[in-house]
Amino acid sequence: MLVQVGQAPFEAASVDNMRRLAEHSGAPGHIYPLALLCHDIMPPPLQVEKEIGEKRVISFHGAGLSIAPEIGFSEIAAACENPEEAKKAYAQVLYDSVTEQYNVLKSAIHGKRGLEASSPTVSLSQPWN
User: Fold this and answer.
1) Could you tell me if residue 42 is inside a domain?
2) pLDDT per residue over 12-34, tens digit each?
3) Which InterPro entries match (predicted)?
4) Is the distance from CB of 125 to CB of 114 less than 8 angstroms?
5) Which residues of 76-86 are buried (b: 16+ CB within 10 A; e: fewer)?
6) How many domains does the chain have?
7) What is the pLDDT of residues 89-109, one digit of tens each?
8) Could you tell me if residue 52 is inside a domain?
9) What string of DSSP letters covers 2-39?
10) Cβ–Cβ < 8 Å for 114, 108
11) pLDDT band at 55 (very low <50, low <70, confident <90, very high)
12) Residue 93 maps to a domain
């Protein structure tokens, strides 16, 4: 699930739909919080054009990807009093994880801190080093 962080919290009903799809797919399904920072490489145009062939500016810029460990619904639900509360709590836990990862990536790339931007829960690395 890809979501632009910073706009609004995750909608609990949408997150629950994804969770239920994974649960009932017939194959093992997992939900991992993921943050991808690549906006500066090709940001959206200042205005939307209806014609095909709009001008897009591509630039060289750092990008980052962070994937946190899987967050299971059952652990969150066990601490809640009812199913609606569990859905909201699960969406919030996922959102908080993605937000934290995204903030670490922004600090590493935009704040030019590199691997030093790592936190106790988000450890950055460069696999080619």
Assistant:
1) no
2) 999 999 999 999 999 999 999 99
3) G3P_O-acylTrfase_chlp (IPR016222)
4) no
5) beeeeeeeeeb
6) 1
7) 999 999 999 999 999 999 999
8) no
9) ---TTS-PPPHHHHHHHHHHHHTSSS------EEEE-T
10) yes
11) confident
12) yes
Three-class secondary structure of residue 66 per DSSP = strand
For Cα atoms 100, 102, 104, give the angle at the middle one, nearest 5 degrees: 70
Residue at token pair 């649960």: 23
Within a domain: residue 110? Answer: yes
Identify the sign of the CA torsion 23, 70, 8, 41.
negative
Q: Residue 30 is part of which domain span? A: 25-35+64-129
Confirm if 33 and 1 have CB atoms less than 8 A apart. no
**φ and ψ at 30, to 5 degrees?**
-135, 145
Encoded amino acid at 55, one letter: K
